[in-house]
């Protein structure tokens, strides 16, 4: 039963003490997040992984790219474990290294040596390594603006992988007009650009997106404005430009949490992000009216792969002396990827 599984997890945690560390992303289920030694957004989880030098086993409750990042940032004696290998991220899968190298060639032919690559941490270790090797950095949704500003001190143009929406929303916030942004379509291997002169382009947006956040739409916002005009609308910047533009607030999961904490009792909030976090916020803020911007709720199916049973299985395996589902980034990839992560962490 769930009760028995919970008891087992508590008891293993208690026995292993500092040898075990469980970071959990804010999108994890309640049944999992209750065991997290730290819950955080992607940036916080990367910082915490880099800072933890004691734990021999890091059981990462999040998705594959987060566990890879933890492996890159931790020492060689530390083992990072992902309780279910199927916990991937469809956005990270939208940019593979072969596509990136092929696209980069065309971009170099088109713009010469004027481009700095940046990648959202929601990307594979190989993409982070590519970016690190070319002088670029990773970004998260909570420091994208700062990192884009830095990138423009290095080069005239930016390639932003793999989330076109975070890239577009951040560049737009910095005052870059839409006709100075082009999309790189990695399948068709061509630019998608509506403006009059491609050479004006300052930001090249990889054509990737989050399949959870694309479910928050302009129609959802119009509906709420019509039926509950007093409601504040807050969304994650993985939502489209149109949705972000029509919202009242936008920011990372941590920003959303902080904004709700600071909100007055009695206020109403429609939240455009993953379901587990929205439900948790609704529970924690019973004095406010908190609900999902899309009534279909929008779960991240891969984040939800991590559940009580998988977490317990990982911990019991460790107890038996078996390390299952260890995430090991190739050392050569790691060597370059850490450069991209460090360039972010020193400015984060
Ligand atoms: P943040 O936690 O950085 O806001 O990222 C959201 C997300 O989609 C993680 O996959
Ligand atoms: Fe990936 Fe989107 Fe899920 Fe985050 S919410 S892990 S970006 S699919």
From TrEMBL:
It holds the Pfam family NadA. Iminosuccinate binds at residues 25, 42, 120-122, 141, 236-238, 253. It catalyses: iminosuccinate + dihydroxyacetone phosphate = quinolinate + phosphate + 2 H2O + H(+). It is found in: Cytoplasm. One of its GO terms (molecular function) is transferase activity. Its EC number is 2.5.1.72. Pathway: Cofactor biosynthesis; NAD(+) biosynthesis; quinolinate from iminoaspartate: step 1/1. [4Fe-4S] cluster binds at residues 89, 210, 300. Its main location: cytoplasm. It is an enzyme of class 2 (transferase). The keyword Iron applies. SUPFAM superfamilies: NadA-like (SSF142754). HAMAP family: NadA_type3. Catalyzes the condensation of iminoaspartate with dihydroxyacetone phosphate to form quinolinate. PANTHER family: QUINOLINATE SYNTHASE, CHLOROPLASTIC, QUINOLINATE SYNTHETASE A. This is Quinolinate synthase. It comes from Aciduricibacillus chroicocephali. The gene is nadA.
